[in-house]
Amino acid sequence: MARSVILQKPMPGVKEILVSLRNFRERLALLVFILATMIYLHAESIWLLAAVSESLLKNGTDVAMNSRERSRISYTLHRGIPHKDTFGHRHYKCSPQLGKRSPLHPAMKNVSGLLDYSTQVTTDLNVIFMGDSISMQYGQAFEEAAGASRQHRSVLRYSWGRHEGLHVAAPVRGGGVVAGWRITGIMSRDRENMELPNAKGGGWKRSDAHNLTGHTYDTQDDANATRTVGSFDAMVLRIPHGWIPLEAITVPALHEAVAMAHELFGVSTMVVVTLPFANNVVTMKDLTLLQEKNDLLRDFVNGWNKTDAIGVDNLLLLEFGNFADLLMEWNGRLMGMDTSNANYTMENLGSANRHFSQSIAQTCSQRVPVGAKKFERNHFSVDGQHWCMNTMAGRFNAGTACLLGCAYNDETSSKSPLILRECEKRCNDQFMSLEPVPSSTLI
Questions:
Q1: If pLDDT is split at 50, 70 and 90, which confidence band does 167 have?
Q2: Do 180 and 132 touch, CB atoms closer than 8 A?
Q3: Does residue 290 share a domain with residue 162?
Q4: What would the mean pLDDT of 286-290 be, rounded to a whole number?
Q5: Do residue 29 and residue 80 come from a single domain?
Q6: Which helix (H) or strand (E) holds 226?
């Protein structure tokens, strides 16, 4: 039987007690009862009180992650099942079409639990991915992880030829929905009804949101049963850096985007994805600004407080930028680059367009002279912007599912910000890093 990934182990001897407790009030009553009993009996086994108290303060997180009754999303890691990038656009698949591409460097490929697994997701959540073509990669990869099939997947609008602009898979494994909406800016009211992608500026139409929420699909439970999406539980947001300048990423802009996500889709949780190095970063000044904007995203998420006017309970951060940058740095070291400072990122391939000149450390499998036009591509970056999802999706999907579990695999309303941040950190430490996952979690 498949084993769910567990980020921390339940307290010995306490798990069975906590499984039966359905809400915080019952747990608090148990704590008071134990305290009164120990005082009455002058018990010396104070460790029991400490163990139960710790579990109560964690609000039952461990139990919630393993309780079928309360779990809305789960995931398993599979070493023997490759991620096929089934729904990805052909231009962004890691094939020879963009030039010769080498396999992963043996130092990367041979680390068990690093890049050698795919993720399978089971969920009843409705999740929408918003952003540019890279966000579409994220959403398409998550659809595959959640078991989406072509016959239950619809492309509602294309943009820029056959690039998907609006897509929805319903139902996925577990009964949920996964969708994607391509937009080239941070969503704002003043961009409504402006030109759609592939135009710059973040134009969007309310009819796209209505087409997603109004999408009707067969439930697969009954040949005659249909269901309407209605609303979404969560949004995974990638800021479309490249389409917009880094200077456009501001707290007011993010605040408006969160508010509109709830207004249009009813989301109560948003996962914000940090930005990795990309071919739009052409100077050290750009790199410094990118780092500052990622810090802004972290501060914005960490400082989030629910307000009734907005309705979004939880903001979470997926540190994909950290993961991708660590992989780039490692690749540079394997090439013999000095990565002790960030100057190595500015060693670029030759390009007619300076804004899309690709970094050798990010794009190549072997070191070549600066300005080179002949090279072998590696197997994690397609073009210095998009990703080889057959390599990257295992960790991305696991990290995303893990974060959604932080918000939905327990009574979310009773979770303190501290509990949520602790769970978020465990997810990022495990998956958005170069730390291999334990072999015991791989199937």
A1: very high
A2: no
A3: yes
A4: 97
A5: no
A6: strand 226-228
